[in-house]
Amino acid sequence: MDPTLRSRILATLKDQIPDLPKGLRTVAKYVVDHPSDFGLDPIRQTAKKAGVSTYTLVRLAERLGFGGYDEMREPFRQALVSAAGVMEKPAWIDRLREADEVGRIQAEAALNSMSIVQRTLEQQDAAQMERVVTMLMAAPTVYLTAVRATYALAYYLHYVGRMALPSLQLIPRHMNSPVDELHDAQPGDVMIALTFTPYSRETIEACKLARRKGVKLIMISDSEIVAPDFSADETMIASVLSPHYFSCYAGAMALIEALITQLVAARGDAARQRIASYEAIRAESHAYWSAQKKR
Predict the structure, then answer these.
(1) How far apart, in whole angstroms, are the C-alpha atoms of residue 148 and residue 166?
(2) Are 280 and 173 within 8 A, CB to CB?
(3) Nearest-CA neighbor of 244 among 118, 113, 114?
(4) Cis omega (within 30 of 0) for bond into 172
(5) CA distances (Å), origin 76, targets 5, 45, 54, 79, 229
(6) Which among 46, 57, 230, 265 is placed 20 to 30 Å from 162, CA to CA?
(7) How many whole angstroms separate alpha carbon 40 and alpha carbon 48?
(8) Distance of CA 140 to CAs 3, 137, 165, 169, 188, Å?
(9) Which strands sit side by side in the sheet containing 216-221, from one edge to the other?
(10) Residue 189: phi, psi to the nearest 5?
């Protein structure tokens, strides 16, 4: 079997999604977002997860030129069979799980966090990371936007990242709208947008405005397909699968840490001097608590 077939199917789906009928668009987005599950699950399970009929899955396969659903799914199944580097479950997970109900829940949460961190980091491409860092360093202004729970991730990226990237600006500020704060954005500027399912309307509107103004767009999300009416220059994918009712951001935080590490390394001496300057100011203002020495 052609080892590039899976990648070519995904690329075709991404290109065709804006022009597909609603049902096929739903299936295509599911396959792009969950290629491993698509390769693993039987057709009825995939239909249930995607929220469509099995007939819709067959129609998508036929539209792509396959003889049937199984023929389209086979490259994804083969990729799972040949995949290496599966995370080894540590012994303490089993000990927790066998203790009691509280231990079982804690074990499942811990295993999920470790799994999505590994899944997120293993799919990061070094060439893409280099492009992103180069784009950020060359921009006169870098806007960074997120809302609701994702705002905490953006705040951390801004708080630490600005020490290596002085052009980084967190929007919105002071309860404004991110759209308001893009008023002065110019071609050549860059915006980093963080959003995960369900995607926030404010963030989508900010992305659309940024594109209209000629601003380059970097998305940090759980999907390469966030909205059909715009596309990002670069999309960095983080898994947010969770054992509870909300997204788990352990993988997204690991991705942010990797990006900050690359920015600090790229800035070199300039970053180290800027970090030292911040630390000196904090020391002078007694920003950090310390216990008084006993006399």
Answers:
(1) 25
(2) no
(3) 113
(4) yes
(5) 9, 15, 18, 5, 28
(6) 230
(7) 14
(8) 41, 8, 11, 11, 7
(9) 168-171, 142-145, 190-194, 216-221, 234-237
(10) -75, 165
Q: Which residues, in sequence order, are CB contacts of 279 under 8 Å at separation 6+? A: none
Query: Helix, strand, or coil here: 44?
Result: helix
- Please choose, from the candidates 137, 101, 149, 155, the residue with its C-alpha nearest in 3D space to the C-alpha of residue 270: 137
Q: Across 37-41, 160-164, 197-201, 243-247, which has the greatest mean pLDDT?
A: 160-164
pTM above 0.85, yes or no: no
Report the alpha-carbon distance of residue 14 to residue 19 in Å, rounded.
10
Helix (H, G, I), strand (E, B) or coil at 235: strand
Whole-angstrom distance, CA of residue 96 vs CA of residue 246: 23
Amino acid at 35: P
Please give the pLDDT value at position 84.
Answer: 40
Residue holding tokens 């080894």? Answer: 88
Please tell me the distance from the alpha carbon of residue 216 to that of residue 191, in angstroms, as a whole number.
6
pLDDT single digits (tens) 52-68: 999 999 999 999 999 99
90 pLDDT higher than 80: yes
